[in-house]
Amino acid sequence: MTEGSDKSRCPNCGKPTAAKYRPFCSRRCGDLDLHRWLGGHYRVQTEETPESSADEGGEIDEI
Length: 63
Hints:
This protein has a domain at 1-40. The chain contains one helix and no strands. The chain has one helix at 27-38.
């Protein structure tokens, strides 16, 4: 895939990607995506609560 092809677009703004920042067009768009990850904007919703995680007791309760 070459730089600037129609198939290679920045997932944040839609501009053509730059090889240096792929899959983003710039460092700014890459940093924006990282901020979203670290801020918890990208997550899978579940019905689990933090208290019912397997980390606490090492075992998962059967439902």
